[in-house]
Amino acid sequence: MIITYIMFSLLIILTLAVFYLIIRLKDIRSDTDSLCAKFPINEDMRKQASDTIANINKEMAVINQKTQQINDVMSEVRGLKNLFIMPKGAGGAGERILEKTLYDILGSSMFESQHRLSCGVVDFVIRFKENIVPIDSKLSLENFNKMLAAGEDSKRAFWRAFTNDVKKRIDETGKYILPNEKTTDFAMMYIASESVYYEAFIKDKQFGEDNTLIDYAWRKRVYPVSPQTIYPYLMTIVQGMKALKIEENAKEILGKVSGLKYDFERFKSIYGIIINHIKDACNKHDGEGLTSVAKIDQHIASLEQKSK
Fold it and tell me: What CA–CA distance (Å, rounded) separates 282 from 265?
């Protein structure tokens, strides 16, 4: 019974709604006809409206094109951001890149990998005369990647954590400075990522704070280098080795010159004796030789007179 009553009520409501819509539609048509009568649409108005719609469509096409370009740029920016976020396995790749760089510039005879010192094993040493230059590959990525991915409110905290990580890596590299084991009084810390190197040691300020990491490294006698900045350091070592070779060659040449001087002094002495002998022979020729010739000439003249 209740359901029947509800259905009947709904039917009445729907009927009234239909009648209301019919009445409103008639009113709308009447209003439309009245407007058309008051404001007749001529051909110029239709053309103007058509042109306006066409212009709107063109503008919408341009807007869509610009929107697509913005989306493309945003995709490239996201890709660039991914380049700065280094993968976790980049440390091992960094060592391989460093080894290849050392081999290409110095040659295999001037460096050694996994060199053992009393404090541990350093990744590489560069041989320079009787000394070795320690160079260790370091990369702190966890807080660096978090800093790049974080919002502006969290970046400062991750930057400070990243700074502490880098200081630890500097301290770890500095322990390989052992002059009593024939190391130089400095060490090199190789950072395989240019972006990490830039954020850590090139930027003067980070989030309004002074960046003091490079000063900290220098105080520890640790020189940070990257794939791009290591080249001048290595070329300086190469030029130094060339200078040492020139010095060694100069010593060898001076030794040969000294030997040549000794040989020349001996030759000079012998030559002097020979000259003296020649002079004696000449003197005898000028003295005794000419006297003998004169005597022979006199004997010949005497014999000629007797024969007459």
Answer: 25
